[in-house]
């Protein structure tokens, strides 16, 4: 059962590239709207819920953003806040159906860097103050990661007060982080789905 | 083509949501939360042991190994080898189940070790305490200090990772250990299991002598077992008649089978299950 899901996921990832080529000539003008967006994300390793926002760059293909996530005691054992800097790159936006409002982003890729608060975490081995040099090589507070995902974007036909169309994206993405990746790279039997984390979210720009 | 994209998208979403049922949804790599079936593994495995009673007059044989940290390939080989052994009661893993103290590592290792025919028990290692690891260990496995009696032998598993607590003189909890060793009701033998041996620099220096004094206070004590240093050592470092053993880590492709019986009798066997690295 788990093996089947793995194959399905792989198939989706490969298939999701196909429509990109059919619609590679996405009209640039629909991309243009206001530069700011707000984000609400669930899971994906950035907290149970993370909220934040960012600024669109490169004709809305590049989305740098900052998120603040929350992990309650019931999930973390103690409360934690997760501060994430994240950048998403979305190269294609083919049109869906004939009605014009919904667009598919078959692939978005990006990276993130986050910092988790809590006195149990150390920034570096040396800053912890209790370990000899080189005792632990990684930072327990900082995670570096990469992700790939897809999204559905809705363009409102009614411009807002500033004359910019509103734009809402629903996204899902699969990510991994440096420590999970190191584990997979040093073990043949650790399968790719075992190191993936699912995140779901919505972005709203104006 | 456009219709195809719509269907493809909906299908993708469905698959992604279905996948969330198989452990993809993670709030933070530092979370302690795991599904209910993977919680309190120590208690779960002790219950499994209780279902197969062992007479105090029988010889008790258990597998002893340490430091599985990030050796998932080796874990599969280890499980295959232990499953071929006869008359093994349980497996004792002497800490450092994880490398980074992440809950997922504990789950990855559990997914492999749960294929053992016998229950496995653990004691917390220093790597299992990194970051939020102590919370994760407590959720996945259970208490940091605990004991159980098996076939007349009392196993006392104690957190000795003093460096992780900044050598505050609190860990190991010597008074808890004293109580445990003093309570010999219904037992004929005692074995202390921990991760960092008291001869190591990661053991709280101010507690080395009090700890050794406590360990030798129990006349039933058979062995003191530890991991952490990734190799086999045996000796009586405190010259008090108490044998302190350390065992291999998963990378070495070897484990020990410890047999205890009678009055403080023990035997040690070494099993090689993979080419030695």
From TrEMBL, chain A:
Q: Where are the transmembrane segments?
A: 36-58
Source organism superkingdom: Bacteria
The answer to whether keyword Transmembrane helix applies is yes
- What keywords is this UniProt entry annotated with? Membrane, Signal, Transmembrane, Transmembrane helix
Signal peptide range in chain numbering = 1-24
- What is this protein's name? Acyloxyacyl hydrolase
TrEMBL record, chain B:
Tell me one Pfam family matched here.
Metallophos
Stretches that traverse the bilayer:
none
Q: Which UniProt keywords apply?
A: Signal
Q: What is this protein called?
A: Metallophosphoesterase
What's one GO MF term for it? hydrolase activity
Among PROSITE patterns, the record links this protein to:
PROKAR_LIPOPROTEIN (PS51257)
Segments forming domain Calcineurin-like phosphoesterase: 60-232
Q: Which residues form the signal peptide?
A: 1-18
Highest taxon of source: Bacteria
Q: Which organism is it from?
A: Hymenobacter jejuensis
